[in-house]
Design brief:
91 residues, alpha+beta, three-stranded antiparallel beta sheet, 2 helices
Length: 91
């Protein structure tokens, strides 16, 4: 059982990822956690519907908070290809 089943997870206190997904606030740990983590303070919430549990789990699994421009990754890739080619020429 993951955090999506825990009674300490606050469904209404949700922080959206900049790209996708979401994390939820844990009252016990006092931090935002994704829905698929697990900790020693786990206590099952029997009142949470399976639909809500699945939604929390999916949001945690899809959470992505990186807003780096894809052009930066393209420049890094091109640089690595050029450096790899140069290294292969001298070895």
């Amino acid at each position: 059982m993951g955090c999506c089943h825990c009674k300490y997870l606050v469904e209404s206190n949700r922080k959206e990822g900049k790209s996708s997904g979401a994390v939820y606030y844990c009252k016990k740990k006092k931090v935002y956690v994704n829905g698929n983590g697990y900790c020693n303070d786990f206590d099952k919430d029997y009142g949470r519907s399976s639909y809500t549990v699945n939604e929390i789990y999916r949001d945690g699994k899809d959470f992505y908070d990186d807003t780096t421009d894809p052009g930066v990754y393209l420049v890094i890739l091109i640089t690595m290809i050029i450096l790899g080619t140069i290294v292969n020429l001298f070895i």
